[in-house]
Specification:
Elements (H helix, E strand, L loop, with lengths): L2 H10 L8 H8 L3 H23 L17 E8 L11 H11 L2 E6 L21 H18 L3 E4 L6 H8 L10 H5 L4 E4 L1 E4 L2 E4 L5 H8 L3 E3 L6 E8 L2 E8 L23 E6 L2 E6 H9 L1
Parallel strand pairs: 1-2, 2-3, 3-4, 6-7, 7-9
Antiparallel strand pairs: 1-10, 5-6, 8-9, 10-11
Amino acid sequence: MKIPELVELFVKKPYHLDMGRNRLAMLYDCTSDDVVLAKSLARGEIARTEVAVATKPVSRNIKLPKPFIGGSADSILIIGDTHVPFDLPGYLEFCRDVQEFFNCGKVIQIGDLVDYHASSYHETIPEGWSPKDELDYAKQRIKEWERVFPEVTVTLGSHDLRPHRKMRSGMVANEWLKSFEDVYDTPNWRYVDEYVYQGIKYTHGTTDAWSNLLNSGVSVVQGHLHTRASVQWHNLGGKSIFAMQVGCGINDKTYAFEYAKTNTTKSHISCGVVFGGNPIVINKETWDASKAK
């Protein structure tokens, strides 16, 4: 098989890219060097296709649900990592449905609100948005979230702080920094490193919620880990405390998450609710299925 035919095959059946070159050479009657070249070309073609889809202008003509007014202060909605503008279509609406169902009067976004892929210290996709374009689309998307959730507490994650780290790398003093409220034009949103409410610590985290619980000795609600959504309980001196991982709301198919494509475990699309002190993780797929019945 010739190289152009191999490339076409690998694009149509990308699982071949994980197979060994010698095995593929035997299967398709070519040299192992041909396989290596064809794999490289196919990966480039797949990346260009995905970027072309991911970088289409964000539509502004979408109908958003109305804000849920009221609700109980003892019922808290926790929105997972969103990484806008690479959040999953429908995740906002899902969170809004959960908010009303559980009568949530308080909303917390658990961090990595924005991705800042173009400003990463790691390798980025050259065909992707520029830092300015990505920020513009992110700000537009945040305004849509704000229209549905007018008051939110955001616990800042590592991606949120990328611009600050870039400024620090450039030896720019903090006095030059704008606030998140100003940059995103969200005057009623609050941006904090972590947030303690009714004795429960809400934080983006750097490890996992269970380790955080053991270190702090209090109940912890955390984001950061896209592939985990769970609640674990611990008895501390006769008192039950919990560690919740809320999952996330990202779109795995966008180029910003290409680094995770080799993971066997996919992102867990979910949000969390703390209802009268009790933690609940709500899976979007299960939620959608229950609504369809």
